[in-house]
Amino acid sequence: MRALGLIDVGYTFGGANPEAGLDCSGLVRYVYAQAAGVSLPHNAAQISQLARLVSREQLRPGDLVFFNTLGKPRSHVGIYIGDGRFVHAPNSRGKVRVESMTQPYYLSRFEGGGSFLVD
């Protein structure tokens, strides 16, 4: 999965490519453009409006996971990789990394999944 190749890339607010750094929606936008040629907005909430909503139980690798981390609906996005884990660019103190959706912080802020995958 292309997102795993970006592990340890630094976080940059508004970042849209690995050389300059990535934020959460920049990571998703970059991976989807490279892997599927899909052009997405650089905003987690706007991306969520374009995706087909899926429940936690329906998530498949490559789907998106949305969280409320800023007191705003769907303010954070990551890419689901399976086994309850996702890749994301967390914040200015971090780098692109894998997290578990069962961690209390993410579990309590999960707002849903989104898919661009075709059945």
Question: Can you give a write-up of this model?
Answer:
The chain is α+β, with helices and mostly antiparallel strands and 119 residues long. It has a single domain (2-115), classed as Alpha-Beta Complex (endopeptidase fold (from Nostoc punctiforme)), CATH 3.90.1720. Helices cover 22% and strands 27% of the residues. The chain is built from three helices and eight strands; from the N terminus they run E-E-H-H-E-E-E-E-E-H-E. Strands 3-8-4-5-6-7 form a six-stranded antiparallel beta sheet. A two-stranded antiparallel ribbon has the order 1-2. A hairpin with a 2-residue loop joins strand 5 (76-82) and strand 6. The longest helix is centred in the N-terminal third of the chain and has 13 residues, at 24-36. It is globular. 34% of the residues are buried. The model has no long low-confidence stretch (mean pLDDT 94).
CATH architecture: Alpha-Beta Complex
CATH fold category name: endopeptidase fold (from Nostoc punctiforme)
Count the strands? 8
Could you tell me the mean pLDDT? 94
User: What radius of gyration results from the CA coordinates?
Assistant: 13 Å
What's the CATH superfamily, by name?
endopeptidase domain like (from Nostoc punctiforme)
Helix segment count?
Answer: 3
Low-pLDDT residue intervals, each spanning 5 or more residues: none
Domain count: 1
